[in-house]
Amino acid sequence: PEYARSLKSPIQKPTPKVRILSILGNAEGIDVAQDQQLLEQLPNADLHFLTEPKAQDLNQQLWQPGWDILFFAGHSSSEAKGIIHLNQHESLTVDQLKYGVRTAIEHGLKLAIFNSCDGLGLARDLADLYLPQVIVMRESVPDRVAQEFLKNFLTAFSQGESLYLSVRQAREQLQALEAEFPCATWLPVICQNPAELPPCWKDWHTKPRKSIQLPTREELQTVGFASLAIAACLFGVRWFGGLQSLELAAFDHLMRSRPTEERDRRLLIVNVTQADIDAASNQARRSNESLSDRTLTSLLEKIEQHNPVAIGLDLYRDAPDTDQKLRDRLGKSDRMIAICKRPDSDQDLTGIRALPEIPQTRLGFSDVLTDADRVIRRQLLFVSPSATTLACATPYSFSTQLAFRYLYSKQITPAFTPETNLRFNNTILQRLPNRSSGYQSIDARGNQILLNYRATPGAPDTIASQVTVSQVLNGEVNPDSIQNRIVLIGLAVPARGDYWATPYGSENDRKIPGVLIHAHKVSQILSAVLDRRPLLQSWSTELEVLWIVGWSLIGGALAWRFRSWLFLGLAIVLAIGTLIVLCLVLLVQGAWVPLVPSVLGLGMTTGAVALQLRFAPIASTFRTLKSHEHP
Known about the structure:
Largest sheet: 8 strands, mixed
Radius of gyration: 45 Å
Number of strands: 24
Distance between the termini: 76 Å
């Protein structure tokens, strides 16, 4: 009837495990080893056993801090005082352990379990010390009943049930034994200190930290072998060009996904439209020309009045001009760069000659490099002098000549590295090798680089400001948009055929005129030299190998880590998304890295490792069963 909370030392944080002091007393005629086995099966338990200890040993352990449960199995009795029999020679009352027990309660002892006979006297004496909870047996208890109760109670309590519910369930489960042991369900009893809160097993220990799961040797071998084997297969297919079309399509997608840039204000495009051609229809002109001599002369006069750095004439005029004024202007103007076309062994055996009035130093070939899908992704800067022809004797491209003129005005002169790469101060235009990222089999003759289209809004149509011939002739163009700029003049008439596919689209309505292609080429060189805009380059073969193998290993690691198909699918989607973003970021910085082989390596390795790890145990079991079959 009298109770109070026991004095406790400062609150201790829960330990990683529940600490149990287990006393296995005098075992004459009973099997306490079974009790020990039941205790050893408890989860998150730190057990300390005292087998038939001496009183001094027990007392010393009670003074050790941190015990959560005191357990006793053996013989006990309730006479004037509750008594426990430690061994065949020593018995103790609670009074003889009073100071040790009280200290243990102060240090956190919460529960005492006496899985022994006649324990009500023990419970009464421990209540005087304000122990929170005591479980005892009312009367003498058969060994089998005691062990069955302990097993059922510990199972329920350690799995999260409350103390009261655990004891009740364990008592009720003893009903099956009452035919042999009458009143078995009546024996266990809880003595509760009303001033204490009911305990829970999980409150007595901290949640154990999950240990880092490491793969087994067999799993490492599975992941490593699958990753290397799949990466090797991909390299083989890639080497023979099997992935080139996919890689170029992925490259185009990344090019279209780049952040936007400003227009290049160093350029002005003068488009020769169908309306400009029709306006000059009453003037004499040759059948293969778009503008008459007189109109072209007036256009050049208007432009040169405003002092441009260079004028690029992207119009074929392969016969002498009949207009003397035009001939004089073309021959004497040091700003004028004209075009010619080199012979093509497949389509054009002769090429297109340049105007005879234009010296070779102001000529540039207009040839473009297209891939198998007719998309322009590369830029030809120059060819060796030995590769020039009579029809087009210049070794430099049209865009390179225009860039030279502009950089000359900035006191920047070109030079060549020992590897014959074009260099402007610290900027080197590294030539494209035969095998370069997505390109695995191309004709890399001449000095080629990847064309890094300027990602202007609406690209590639909006590379620079654009006007028409009529606007220039009518004085509708601001002189400031011409002064100190490169002016490119070219056809913008789809019916004339000078329209090209780019990474932004190969449909007819997405193709752009050749003059805009040249504008992008000129802009790339100027931006790289003057603005430090990255040039597109590929990694070395060694780096590409490491990149693809690395993503294959990531796929294998994901398959090992996530055994649920749902989580594995989500992880693959996240990994592929990360890979695409990384490739885009690297492309913006100027590195074209393998995307398609990496995605394939990631996905294929994930699938291969996932199937191997999931079905290997089944196959192993099947082999084991087969090995045990009788003939």
